[in-house]
Amino acid sequence: MPVSDERLAAAARAGEAGAFDLLVERYAARVAAFCLRNVGDPEEAQDLAQATFLAAFRSLASFTDGRRFAPWLFGIAANQCRMWHRKRAAEVDCAEPVRENVADPGPTPEGIVQAVEQKRLVRRAVLGLPPRYREVITLRYLQGMSTRDIAAALGLSGEAAAKRLSRGIDMLRERLAALEGMGS
Predict the structure, then answer these.
(1) Which positions ≥6 away from 128 have C-beta within 8 Å?
(2) Which of 53, 76, 96 is the last residue of a domain?
(3) DSSP structural state of residue 128
(4) Contact 72, 63 (CB under 8 A)
(5) Which of 27, 103, 117, 159 has the most CB atoms at less than 10 Å from its CB?
(6) What pTM was computed for the model?
(7) The CATH number of the domain where 80 resides is what?
C-alpha cells in the first residue's frame, strides 16, 4: 500500500532521505501543468514548478499534522505564479501572444482543426482571466480539486473559494462568448 502524501511530508520534515523526492515524483507533472495554465509559457512554467518544490522543501516546517499535502503544495504554486505575474507586470506593458501546444484530438482533419481551435479559444479565455479567477478555474478543472481544497490551497474561506469559482466560471463564459463572437 502506498504511503500517503502527508506521511511522506512528515518524513521529509523529519529529515528522512528520499521522502521529499517521492513527493516531487508524484506531483511534478500536476504542478507544472498548473503553472503552465497560469502563465501560458512552458519554460516559465517549468521554472515555476521547480521554484514551487524548492519553496515547499524550505517550508516543510510549516506543513503541520492534520493538513492535506496537495492543497498546501498548490497554494505554494499559486503564490509562485502570483509573484511571476507581479514581476512580469512590472517589466512589460503588453502581453505576449499565447503559445499553443497542438495535440491530435480526432481522426478527421476537420475534427482536428475544430478541436485545436476550441482548445486555443479556451486557453486564451482562461489566460485572459484575472489571476485570482484563473487560479481557481485551473485548480478545479485541471487539478480536480474540491472547493474545500481550493480554499485551503489559496488561504480562503470555503465560501470565498466558492464565490470566486462561481465568478470565474461566469467570467470564463463571458470571455468565451466574446472570443467566439469575434471569430478569434
Answers:
(1) 175
(2) 96
(3) T
(4) yes
(5) 27
(6) 0.63
(7) 1.10.1740.10
